[in-house]
Amino acid sequence: MCGSIDSTASARVAFKSAPGKWAQQVYSNCETYPRQPRPLAFHALGLFCLGEHLALIDLPLGLLFSTDGPYGRVAHTLLNGAMLACAQINADPGSAVRLRPVQVNPKGVLQEYAAGAKSLIDQGIRHICGCYTSSSRKEVLPLIEKHDAQLWYPSHYEGFETTSNVIYTGAAPNQHLTPLIDYLFNSFGRRAYGIGSNYIWAWESIRVLREGVNRLGGEVIAERYVPVGETDLAAHIDEVLELRPDYVFNALIGSSAYAFFRGLRRACAERGIDQPRILPVASCNLSEPELHEIGSDAADGQISSSVYFASLQGARNAEFTAAYRAAFPDGPAVSAEAEASFIAVHLLARAVARAGSADVVAVRATVPHCAIDAPQGRVWIDGSTMHAYLTPRIGLSRKDFGFDILREAAEPVRPDPYLVGWARETEPALNSPVLRIVR
User: Fold this and answer.
1) Of 122, 221, 382, 433, which residue is the least packed, with the fewest Cβ within 10 Å?
2) What is the rounded CA–CA span in Å between residue 122 and residue 120?
3) Phi and psi of 351, rounded to 5°?
4) CA pair distance 389, 154, nearest whole angstrom
5) pLDDT higher than 60, residue 26
6) How much is the pTM?
7) Hey, what domains does the chain have and what are their CATH numbers?
8) Helical H runs in 134-195?
């Protein structure tokens, strides 16, 4: 057991400074909790089912990730993390569960997510680990709820969703978004420029940014949205250079984000501007494989708020990164998304073993009583929200496609997906109507 955690903590976070052979093996089978639960420990590539000796449970697991399309690189790491966890669990002779992963690739086409989820459900699969974007999650949720299946959602997201049919292992907004807002305001200034892909995650993220900045006495001087996959961002880059905000909040995804980072760095260089110092860009979705996509000319000096970076110190992360790199030597690089899907599958297996059944209702009731010593640290599910306790961190990217960790929370933070605690602090801003023109 680690030290006690304040389960009533508000949304504010206290920081302290701070495919080869294996891949063939990994993919060979692919077709309000008041206290910390007992942790699950990893052993070699397996896990202990502590105190449990159950008959082997066969568990088909749907994997719904778009490894092609505008955000395919990141989604590939989600798939890799889930498959690595499946391989570890199946290789452990002490495991009570045998996973049978079944993969569906919607190829980044929104309408294909519902079709993919239906194909998995029609096969009798009731546990699905999948989706990267919030729009894809929203697309499959009606089917998941209709058939009382369980979606294990391993991506950071905007919050403000409640359903018993989703277990969230990615960061809630108080674990990545609100800490970043405070950091940016205190480190760089009061004038923010927001740009994002035109869908719900970016809309909600920039809305929270605006309310947080207003509370602190600042302003979002511009708010822009572009279609997912749009790479012609010259006009927006020119606007950033003209307006000179204190920082840019980036909520673009995939190829749009890569084009923006490269274009802004290039435009600044042409004008003799030190972009990271004069026009810093901060994101809640920037991870190591995306730095590779951006390229070495613009990969350094970018700010990222996340619960996991591959550069974390500690034995658990060393084991995880070594196993991941051995399994997937050709990449994509390990990421927060890979860790979140890895956590989701291990928590699922732990809950099934403890429940003695893969029944969705039984697993749902059991999972808040499970915990794992994950690569990022202790992780468990809050039974009142079905979101995970996670440890917020802020990193600064390097030219070698890694991150230096600038700040991190002292302990895992209770998820506040509805920003209830934060709303109390921002009440004047939330209750003051603000009319704006969004172009």
Assistant:
1) 433
2) 5
3) -65, -40
4) 13
5) no
6) 0.85
7) 19-171+313-389 (3.40.50.2300), 174-310+395-431 (3.40.50.2300)
8) 134-146, 173-188
